[in-house]
Specification:
45% of the residues lie in helices and 11% in strands. It starts with a helix and ends in a 7-residue tail after the last helix. Helix 2 packs parallel to helix 7 and helix 4 crosses helix 6. The chain contains seven helices and two strands, in the order H-E-H-E-H-H-H-H-H. Strands 1-2 form a two-stranded parallel sheet. The mean pLDDT is 94. The protein is mainly alpha-helical.
Length: 161
């Protein structure tokens, strides 16, 4: 919030508002466009959050969301196991963890193994992304068919995946 507010101070037509995503302080049918990246999967109920936001759209409005993708069972097991530890780390410990993982990523890239390893474990190409991935206490993963089903149930037409 602070970064967004600081970065957008020169834009008179932008307001930064922090609120409960399940009870936003906006009337229904008030937005032409909703864009969410890096939020819904951290709410504990990404589907409900998507539906709540959908009510805020005007007729013929557009909503774009990004949620973490669901991996294979090995990937999901490793991710749960790591996050069980990383979400309990101090900030300093998590920063060190992220830097080490980033070092491993760079070695894997030299041998062109990063895409293969990422089938089983999330090691982003930047330490800040690694920190973000492993720090949030809640981080659900979703498949394309699951998310498409949310939108179908809510009554939306999928334009592009």
């Amino acid at each position: 919030m602070e970064s967004a507010s600081s970065n957008l101070t020169d834009f008179e037509n932008v307001q930064i508002i922090q609120c409960d995503i399940f009870s936003p302080p906006f009337d229904d049918n008030c937005f032409d466009l909703i864009f969410s990246i890096g939020v819904l999967m951290h709410t504990g109920n990404a589907r409900k959050a998507t539906e709540t936001l959908s009510h805020k759209l005007k007729a013929h409005g557009s909503i774009t969301i990004h949620v973490y993708g669901k991996g294979n069972f090995i990937y999901e097991f490793i991710n749960r196991t790591l996050r069980n530890k990383t979400t309990r780390m101090t900030l300093k410990e998590l920063q060190l963890f992220s830097e080490r993982f980033y070092s491993y990523r760079r070695i894997l890239e030299k041998f062109r193994l990063a895409p293969l390893v990422n089938l089983f474990i999330q090691i982003d190409p930047h330490p800040h992304c690694i920190f973000d991935w492993y720090s949030a206490p809640i981080a659900t993963h979703h498949s394309y068919p699951e998310v498409k089903n949310w939108f179908s149930e809510i009554g939306f037409t999928i334009m592009k995946t």
